[in-house]
Design brief:
Structural class: alpha+beta
Number of strands: 6
Number of helices: 11
Shape: elongated
Helix content: 55-70%
Length: about 280
Amino acid sequence: MADANKSTLSREQDGSVKLVVTLQLADVSAAREAVVKAAVDEAELPGFRKGKAPRNVVEERLDTAKVQEEILKKLLPKAYVAAVEEHGIKPIMNPKIHVQKIEPNKDWAFEAITCEAPKITLGDYKERVKQVTAKSKIVLPGKEKQEPSFDEIVRAVLEGAEVNTPQVLVQQEADRLLAQTLDEIKRLGLTLDQYLSSTGKSPEIFRKEYEEKAKADMKLEFVLAKIAEDEKITVDQKEVDEAIQKAKDPHERENLTRNSYLLASILRQQKTLDFLKNL
């Protein structure tokens, strides 16, 4: 590569981070040369053996948009990582990328929007949870023990907690939840318009509801992770392996093994909830 690509960083109040990265013309040109050469080597045109067609003939047939896409595949990941390291940030999500207008014989530039872990204030959550769990410690003759519900504990924990969740993260989670719902709607044999009509919701309200759910889900996830960190609640490999062995069939076992990091996270959340329940 040529001299280091230029990058600037700006932060939003919600914790979102925007990087603007310039890809230098020399790097773009070198990447384009590699893409074109690879296309020439693989080209199979009438009258020519594979890789023996004239470069100008092959180049004329190339799709400009696809060439640009291949150039970005070569340059963008490394440039993004370099910008992250340059500014010393610690992203917790894959960036949303927007490539700015591409002009011939000029530097290229792209925006990458991501975020770091939000600031979390737990407040006096232990006292609030103890008020909820107190009823389970009182056993009256002839009465069953009253166990606090999951929802009661969660409400107590979140009541005084403050989490500045970045909007870009909320949108990403809302997109994931919406995709799941759309798959379910399709399995029911309905279109989105039919589903919205049956619920009496507009697309805007539908989207807003999922963003609110995503924000609530993310808040709970961050708060539980912060409590686990403060209380040194961990999950070891033995616990993960035991959970995998309890899978109901080989397919589920394979899926859990492939996503063992996510499984460990879920187990840690459960241990954190057990910790809260026993306060």
